Amino acid sequence: MRIDAGPRPFYRPRVPQVRTRRHRPVPVTPALRQLGDKLRQARTEAGLSQAQLGAPYFTRAHVSAIELGKIRPAMRSLEHMARKLGKPASYFLDDPGAARAQGERRLEMAAIAGLLTLSGAAEARRRAQKLLDEEGLTVRERCQLHLYAGSALNLLQRGADALRDLAIAQRLAAQLGDAALERGSDYQVAVATRIAGNAREARAMLEALLRNVEQLRPPDQLLRLRILITLGACAQDLGDPSAATTYYARALEWSKDIGDLTRLVAIYQGLGNAHRALGDHDAAAGYYQRALGAAELASDLVAVHVMHNALAVLAADDGRIAAAYEHVARAIEIARVSGPSAFLAHYLATRAEVALKAKDWQLARSSAEEALAAADERGAESARATAAAVLVLAELDLRDGDAARAEKRFREAGATAELGDVLMRQSRAAKKRGDLKAAERYAAEAYKVAKPMSANVGA
Length: 459
Description:
There is one protein chain. The chain has helices spanning 30-46, 50-54, 60-67, 75-84, 96-114, 121-132, 139-155, 159-176, 179-195, 199-214, 221-237, 241-255, 261-277, 281-297, 301-317, 321-338, 341-357, 361-374, 380-399, 403-414, 419-432, 436-448. The chain is an all-alpha fold. The chain has a domain at 30-94: 434 Repressor (Amino-terminal Domain) (Orthogonal Bundle).
């Protein structure tokens, strides 16, 4: 074996070479140059330096490189600078079609917001749903559209359906960290909860929201006004017209600083409803007349026919049948032109009840049947109109001696109409067929579940 005489060489393990990445500038393209020029022009017009535009996240050198077309900005940095310049990020991109589409979408969303009235709610919901089906919506746009869709469903008295859209709006508003959007979504959720039949839970939601709003500096006056009005309606639903008048009085005080005729109509109508429930029909008539005047001044045809119907109900309660016929005829005439059809059905049911009081059996039956035919929309308003018309037909069945059929109609209406009213009518039906025990039982149950007075005329 050969033995080396010299020292053994020292071998180092071979270390693999690491290739370092060399940052090469993005080739200047016409698109990047155009983006940079637009950014520089917008920054100059806004009076900002490059450092001010980039702060606090990006350096002056970063902004300068973008303006020179040397680098392509990440969407996050572009959105940051676009926000500071008051422009959408798409304004700076090389796709004019995207900017145009976003501009058109913004105009459509403004149009949808303008349709959020009783007469425009169905169209607002349709257009909001159509936009929600499009791709490329931002989180904010999606949040606002779900809020619009839910608000439209509330106006259509479809609270249970509205809650689905509004839950999405609440989640997205929280994700955005937009407190104003969160408050708007919370308010509409409370409204939907009341419409869905849970006035007590809605009142708790609204009271918590009111405390939140009143802590703002400055407070959101319009939202506070809307909350107070809806709290008045919740109190009325819960059979507390005295509390309702307190809420409406507070709302009336705040409305002086806002000058919103639509809200003023709602306040006067609410005060009229509360005073009617308290038995003060003179005060109720005065408030209804003020609401009618404000609605006419605002050219709000839906509010005008609503108030004519309210005056018809009040007049019939007082035995002023001619005045009741006059007001309800006006309500029907306007509703046939302006809609919604659910309101028309409601007024036809009112006319049926007025005719019942006037002992005009033929008009009562024909109006009730016409109301049932007109109640072709989903929602609480159509359901109430249907129930009122069914009750009139049940009363006519009683008059014709068909107590069994009348009781069947009463049960049919019981799910929607005021339970106390239905039970009293059932009591009369049982008495007429000779079942005194059932009549007493129905009457006792009616007193137990006494509720606020219906918007329609009691028979």
